[in-house]
Specification:
It contains 11 helices and 9 strands. The chain has 263 residues and is α/β, with parallel strands linked by helices. The longest helix is centred in the last third of the chain and has 23 residues, at 236-258.
C-alpha cells in the first residue's frame, strides 16, 4: 500500500481535469465483511473517486431506511468496530482512492478516540465524517486529527446560521458535507434548490471543497449537483444495489453514476 491519498488532493486533481468528484458510501460488514470490502473496491474500479465507509450503529437516527436495514444486518451478523480497520486496510491494499469513515461519535468514544484514530491511520484511512457532532463540541477530535493528520468532515445544513456555516468551514478538512433533507419523490427540484443555496452560502464563507449528499441516485443527478458543487455523495442507491444484486449490481450502479462526473 502506498501513502494515503487525501480527499482534498483527489477533488483538486479532478477539478484541474475538468470533472467533479464522486463519493460512494457503503457500510462495513454488509452483507458480510469480505463482501463489503469487495463491493467498496468495485466502486473505485467503476469510477468512484473516494469512499465513505459507514460504521454500523444501533441507533442510526440520521440514516435512511435502506442504510438502516443494511447496518442492522451487519450488526446482526456480528460486526465489531475493529472490523472497520480491517476493511480499510484491505481496501487500500487494492485501490488508491482515499477512504473516509463515516461514524456516529458514540462508537468512537466507546473504542477510545485516540485509539480509534491511531488504528485508522495504521490502516491507511484518510479521516472521519462525523454527522452527529458539531465543531463547537468537537475540540477533542479536532486535537486528535491535528496530531494524526486525519481529515475531519463536518456536516452543514440549510437550517444552519451563516455563523455556524463559517465555523463548520473553518473546522473541516477534506471537504464540507452539505446535506439537504430529502422530501417525497417528486420534490427533487425543491431539494436541489435548497442544496444550491446552501453551497452558495458555504462559498460565501470561504468553503473551498463542498460535496453534496441529497439522495442522489442517477448519473443525471450527479451531473446536476456537480454544476455547483465539487463532489456528489451517493449512499442509499449503492446500498440498495448491493442488497438486491450483490457486488455486480453495485458495480453497475457505480458505473452509471460515474457517467455524470463528466457530463
Amino acid at each position: 500500500m502506498s501513502g494515503v491519498t487525501s480527499v482534498a488532493s483527489t477533488i483538486d486533481a479532478n477539478r484541474r481535469a475538468g470533472t467533479g468528484s464522486l463519493v460512494g458510501y457503503l457500510p462495513v460488514g454488509f452483507p458480510d465483511l469480505a463482501t463489503s470490502v469487495d463491493a467498496a473496491v468495485s466502486l473505485v474500479e467503476n469510477g468512484v473517486d473516494a469512499l465513505e465507509l459507514g460504521v454500523p450503529y444501533s441507533d442510526p437516527v440520521m440514516d435512511g431506511l435502506a442504510i438502516q436495514k443494511a447496518t442492522q444486518a451487519a450488526l446482526a451478523a456480528g460486526f465489531r468496530v475493529r472490523d472497520v480497520f480491517t476493511a480499510v486496510e484491505a481496501i487500500r491494499s487494492r485501490v488508491e482512492a482515499p477512504v473516509l469513515v463515516m461514524t456516529y461519535w458514540n462508537p468512537v468514544l466507546q473504542y477510545g478516540p485516540d485509539r480509534f484514530a491511531n488504528a485508522l491511520v495504521d490502516a491507511g484511512g484518510a479521516g472521519l465524517i462525523t454527522p452527529d457532532i458539531t465543531p463547537d463540541s468537537a475540540a477533542p477530535w479536532i486535537a486528535i486529527s491535528e496530531r494524526t493528520g486525519l481529515d475531519r468532515v463536518f456536516l452543514a445544513a440549510p437550517s444552519s446560521t451563516d455563523e455556524r456555516l463559517a465555523e463548520t468551514v473553518a473546522a473541516s478538512r477534506g471537504f464540507v458535507y452539505a446535506v439537504s433533507t430529502m422530501g417525497i419523490t417528486g420534490a427533487r427540484q425543491d431539494v436541489d434548490a435548497a442544496a444550491r443555496s446552501l453551497v452558495a452560502r458555504l462559498r460565501a464563507v470561504d468553503a473551498h471543497d463542498v460535496c453534496v449528499g441529497i439522495g442522489i441516485s442517477t448519473g443525471d443527478q450527479v451531473a446536476e449537483v456537480l454544476q455547483y458543487a465539487d463532489g456528489a455523495i451517493v449512499g442509499s442507491a449503492l446500498v440498495t444495489a448491493l442488497a438486491e444484486h450483490g457486488v455486480a449490481g453495485v458495480a453497475r450502479t457505480a458505473a452509471a453514476l460515474a457517467q455524470g462526473r463528466t457530463r
